[in-house]
Design a protein that fits this description.
The complex is a heterodimer of chains A (365) and B (325). With 365 residues, chain A is of the alpha/beta class. Chain A contains eleven helices and seven strands. Classes of the chains: A alpha/beta (365), B alpha/beta (325). At the A-B interface, helix 5 and helix 6 of A face helix 3, helix 4, helix 5 and helix 10 of B.
Chain lengths: 365, 325
């Protein structure tokens, strides 16, 4: 995949030619997969809401690329790119959005709320913003207690920095010197609330001073810069230097979810970011300019990505739906399966155990 | 073997489980060198080190959240809430993150959240709470609330070994008042099984925690004064609830009183009543009655607290009403 010509780079040796093409591929895959999800959403094949990361792919991909496979990562809703880098597959994401029976959560959770802590090491998020900061503090404390050379990275948005869980979690990680990198993706809006209505501080990175840890602000739409500052924070964490807060400046070019028309964004702002500060366009210009990558090379990657998403879509569409009674399995390890509501005491059950009665709680014996 | 207190039984359970399994760690406020507000963890940091008995900031959500993360990666964290009243600060983490993790993400989350609970100690509204009912409504959690020192030890050991998250309530009125000789060996009491604290044939009291002792006191009084034989069921585990034990006793005595120290409205007694209606209504000779605290925040002054919380005399009166029905 690497270009044969290796021109002088201007990224201070942060990346190899292979790295750069990989970064481009992950960003392109993220965007292509989301565009496919939009098409499926419009065909009503996506069961719930659809959350885009358009314009934030550089931040998601560049930061996750700084991790080793054994490091742990906790994504946010705009971190599809991070999850792909960490090993999530387009097939998993498509099945998940389409609520298929063989989706990673077997239809129990939505969108990119899924994880894998045994092999690829990303932790499924929940909707309560900031909650994964304490959880990742605990995971990275485990790494530290076991003397493992592993780190964790947790994403929050500008909005989540206002939560108690964010504060408690980052403070806990700082005090315990957990090998944790907290990435704040400041994309300008938490749903419709602009960042200056979220926090009176000029820079969210300045919150780090209050926790006694380094805080760094970076251009979140420059994938190489994102990678560089994240690698620094990861290296510090791995060397026993504790937690770091990174603030990545970016912009959310789509609504909170696909239904949101962004009427609250000043006119022209979205277009300005799209034309002047798109992370893929910016990186493409650098690749074909200073790094000497041919447009044919990038076009070949684009075609590969489309083929991959096509194949995954076909497979996901053929996946089976969920079966209703599966809903009762797996709340606990023991008991492994809950009894149906209408089957509490066999003498009064009006229907068989695995049959759903026409109405709830039938007890007409 | 000498008698030890309920509190010492807790400490013994923690120490034995930490010695048995290196993945068991303790997290909490002031639990290390200081040994905890009630000294439940006294001496454990000196014995097991700072890496296994971890002092934390005043951050209940972070304590529980961090424990969840540790549990995902194979550890067995036991979190202390300095008073169980403060578990409400971790309510989101417990109900949204911890309780759902196995179901929504196949993430094991074997943590124990334990702490001193309950009133009768002049602790006022924020050091006397019984918040168990707030969590009964959360699928994915287990709730344990022992009444004896033997059960405190055996159930805590079972909770630490359980593969799911367990809330473990320790009634602070019992901490130093209740003593027992521990059964020998590795004493583990299975979760989900109630205990017949007193056999009887005339009526059943279903209860748990400190009010088990008040129910037993009432039963002795009723036996002595009017020859009533009252059966007392100590639930021990509230979630999952031992429906079979309740049903067996109802079929035997046909009259049921449910007693808890928590406030009546929305308390666990309502749920137990509904289950009795579903499972064995035909066996009842009288309506199910309940005795609990008045629906007010728990006040501090002795005359106020004594008025609000259920007393032995309330139980005696309700039993007489049931027996005469």
């Amino acid at each position: 995949m690497a270009d044969t010509a290796t021109p002088a780079t201007t990224d201070h040796g942060v990346t190899t030619a292979e790295d750069r093409l990989a970064l481009y591929r992950w960003m392109r895959l993220t965007r292509t997969l989301e565009e496919r999800l939009v098409a499926l959403y419009r065909q009503t094949k996506v069961v719930g809401g659809l959350f885009r990361s358009l314009g934030q792919e550089g931040c998601a991909v560049g930061s996750a690329y700084a991790l080793e496979r054994t490091d742990a990562l906790s994504p946010l809703i705009r971190n599809l790119g991070s999850m792909l880098v960490k090993g999530a597959t387009p097939l998993e994401v498509l099945r998940q959005y389409m609520a298929k029976g063989d989706s990673p959560t077997r239809g129990r959770e939505l969108n990119i709320h899924f994880g894998d802590v045994t092999d690829r090491h990303f932790v499924g998020q929940i909707s309560h913003l900031g909650d994964l900061v304490p959880v990742m503090a605990g995971i990275t404390m485990t790494f530290k207690l076991r003397g493992e050379s592993r780190v964790g990275l947790v994403y929050v948005g500008d909005g989540a920095t206002s939560t108690g869980a964010f504060h408690e979690g980052i403070n806990f990680a700082a005090v315990q010197r957990c090998p944790l990198v907290v990435v704040v993706e400041n994309n300008g809006y938490a749903y419709s609330t602009p960042t200056d209505r979220q926090c009176a501080a000029e820079r969210l990175a300045d919150k780090a001073a209050g926790y006694g840890i380094p805080g760094v602000r970076a251009d979140g739409n420059d994938v190489l810069e994102v990678l560089r500052v994240t690698r620094e924070a990861v290296a510090r964490a791995r060397a026993g230097g504790g937690a770091t807060l990174l603030e990545m400046m970016t912009f959310r070019r789509k609504g909170h979810a696909e239904h949101d028309n962004q009427s609250y964004v000043p006119e022209g702002e979205i277009e300005k970011w799209a034309t002047e500060n798109d992370p893929i366009d910016r990186f493409t210009a650098r690749l074909t300019g200073e790094f000497g990558v041919t447009t044919a090379t990038l076009a070949a990657i684009d075609a590969e990505v489309v083929a991959e998403v096509d194949a995954a879509t076909e497979e996901a569409e053929a996946s089976p739906p969920c079966s209703g009674t599966d809903a009762l399995v797996g709340v606990y390890a023991d008991p492994a399966e809950m009894p149906p509501l209408w089957y509490r005491g066999d003498a009064s059950a009006a229907v068989s155990k695995h049959e759903r009665p026409a109405s709830w709680g039938t007890h007409d014996g | 073997m000498a008698e030890i207190t309920f509190l010492e039984a807790i400490r013994e359970a923690l120490a034995e489980e930490m010695a048995r399994d290196p993945e068991v760690v303790l997290l909490g406020e002031d639990i290390g060198k200081y040994g905890g507000a009630f000294k439940a963890t006294d001496g454990l940091q000196a014995r097991f080190g700072e890496g296994r008995v971890i002092d934390t900031p005043v951050s209940e959500a972070a304590i529980v959240g961090a424990a969840a993360g540790m549990a995902h990666y194979g550890m067995r964290p036991v979190c202390e809430m300095q008073f169980i009243d403060f578990v409400s600060c971790a309510y989101d983490m417990l109900t949204n993150y911890v309780a759902t993790s196995r179901y929504r993400a196949f993430l094991p989350c074997p943590i124990v959240v334990r702490g001193p609970s309950g009133g009768y100690v002049r602790g006022g509204p924020f050091h006397s709470q019984n918040p168990e009912a707030a969590f009964l409504h959360t699928p994915g959690l287990k709730i344990v609330y022992p009444s004896t020192a033997e059960d405190a030890k055996g159930l805590l050991k079972a909770a630490i070994r359980d593969d799911d998250p367990v809330l473990f309530f320790e009634h602070k009125y019992l901490y130093r008042r209740i003593k027992a000789v521990m059964p020998p060996g590795d004493h583990v009491v299975p979760l989900g099984k109630a205990r017949v604290a007193r056999e009887g044939t005339d009526l059943t009291i279903v209860t748990y925690a400190a009010t088990v002792w008040k129910a037993l006191e009432a039963a002795e009084q009723l036996a002595a004064e009017e020859g009533l034989e009252v059966e007392v069921i100590d639930l021990r585990t509230l979630l999952p609830m031992d429906d079979e034990a309740i049903e067996a006793s109802v079929r035997k005595t046909n009259r049921v009183l449910i007693v808890h120290e928590d406030t009546v409205t929305g308390g666990i007694a309502g749920e137990i009543t509904a289950r009795i209606n579903e499972r064995c209504f035909e066996w009842l000779d009288a309506p199910v009655r309940r005795v609990g605290a008045h629906d007010v925040p728990l006040p501090y002054a002795p005359p106020l607290e004594d008025f609000v919380l259920p007393q032995t005399s309330d139980i005696v009166r309700a039993c007489r009403w049931l027996a005469a029905y």
